[in-house]
Design goal:
The chain is α/β, with parallel strands linked by helices. Helices cover 24% and strands 26% of the residues.
Length: 424
């Protein structure tokens, strides 16, 4: 055997070995993707059952949703933070019928009878609060923060509905609840890794998403950045740390902007400061993610545009602001090209105001001009801002989730098409 022949044989053996390794790698990746896809399919297609043997973590069919508001009873309540300012309420239906499932991140709408602090008369108020847990067979959970009066604004009252929940809603209290809804929720169409960013009470929809993904058994990578001032404001710390210790696909980042003396960095929290784009860039791998962001307005105004400036596609960014809550998927606003002048008249308020084309909705426009209108979810779901249209037409930013009466509109998701007169 010549040297050339031997060399050719050795080369052929090496090529065969490399080909086998590549084929094995492709096969493993295909199997992993197949398993992940099967896991998502199972999560979206769990068979319906009304038996009592159903797991408490198993979602129920959405066809159990009901029209309007129905009565629930508070099974229990639980204070969640060191400041005694956040309370979880566990709700069960009084008719004992199966619960409608929901997509993690959605909210419940409540119709409350509350005494007006100015008139001392009872009035009906609709408010929306995010579900803070994965879908369960026997109860819903919402976690509500008491909103105090601003320290430097004596004329501004404390949060009406949050104070009502904390002061008056006890175990066995009855509440009127609308079926889960909302456009801010986990997107399961693509098995992308997930980045959750929650500021303050904005952690609640993130807990729902987090618990759902980890309990599903799907090995989808998930990062949680949870920003508070210190450990007294943190909720469910032990729960989060336990999840991080048993799930290698969950990466927990607690961020304290003003730690207490007894808060130990590296033990109680991971980062001293707020959740920022530099922090995300320093701790995330260079790859594509789905970003879900929920927090106060300053956080949203910093992070959402910052993610796009970083190069994240707007289609991979989902956000919800709280206090009050709004939507959904962020899209860069296109500059107004219309030179048309539109006037919006609020007949009961006696104001006629040129429309601001930079306003996202008639609700936002009304509030900016000191016109009081009822509102709840601010996402087209609860119907609280439904207002009669006396003249003109509106365009909707999205399809309403609730029935709208003829010659009415939902202010929170509509803008004027032409001169408009509203009964407000």
């Amino acid at each position: 055997m010549t040297t050339v022949t031997l060399a050719l044989i050795i080369l052929a053996v090496i090529i065969v070995q490399v080909a086998i390794v590549m084929l094995l790698g492709l096969y493993r990746r295909k199997r992993q993707f197949h398993d992940l896809d099967k896991g998502i399919h199972r999560a979206e297609n769990i068979p319906q059952s009304n038996t009592t043997t159903r797991s408490s973590t198993e979602p129920l069919s959405s066809n159990h949703a009901w029209d309007g508001f129905k009565e629930f009873v508070v099974q229990r309540r639980e204070i969640e933070d060191g400041n005694n300012s956040i309370c979880s309420f566990y709700l069960v239906p009084t008719d004992n019928k199966p619960l409608a499932t929901f997509r993690p991140g959605q909210f419940l709408s409540f119709k409350l009878q509350i005494e007006d602090p100015e008139t001392h008369k009872s009035k009906s108020v609709v408010r929306c609060y995010s579900l803070s847990d994965a879908p369960r067979a026997d109860h819903y959970r919402v976690s509500i923060k008491r909103i105090p009066a601003p320290a430097n604004q004596a004329d501004v009252p404390a949060g009406l509905s949050s104070s009502f929940f904390h002061d008056h809603v006890q175990e066995d209290s009855r509440l009127l609840v609308k079926a889960p809804s909302g456009h801010f929720h986990l997107m399961e169409e693509e098995p992308l890794p997930i980045v959750l960013v929650g500021g303050g009470i904005g952690i609640t929809p993130m807990l729902s998403i987090l618990n759902t993904v980890l309990e599903s058994g799907i090995k989808r990578e998930i990062w949680l950045y949870y920003g508070v001032r210190n450990g007294d404001e943190l909720i469910m710390k032990q729960h989060l740390q336990t999840l991080a210790s048993i799930h290698d696909n969950f990466h927990l980042h607690l961020c304290y902007s003003a730690p207490n003396e007894n808060d130990v960095e590296g033990v109680d929290y991971q980062h001293n400061g707020q959740v920022t784009i530099p922090l995300l860039r320093a701790t995330l791998k260079l790859m594509r993610y789905q970003f879900y962001v929920c927090g106060p307005k300053p956080m949203m105004e910093s992070l959402v545009p910052g993610l796009e400036d970083w190069g994240v596609d707007s289609g991979d960014i989902y956000y919800e602001s709280f206090g009050p809550a709004t939507l959904i998927q962020h899209k860069k606003a296109a500059p107004a090209t219309s030179t048309q002048s539109i006037t919006v008249t609020f007949s009961r308020s006696g104001k006629s105001i040129p429309w601001d084309f930079s306003a996202d909705s008639l609700l936002e426009f009304a509030e900016a001009n000191d016109i009081e209108v009822e509102s709840g979810c601010r996402a087209g779901s609860c119907g609280s801002c439904q207002t009669a249209v006396k003249a003109g037409e509106v365009d909707y930013n999205q399809a309403p989730d609730t029935d709208v009466e003829p010659e009415h509109c939902l202010l929170c998701i509509s803008t004027p098409k032409c001169d408009l007169t509203l009964d407000a």
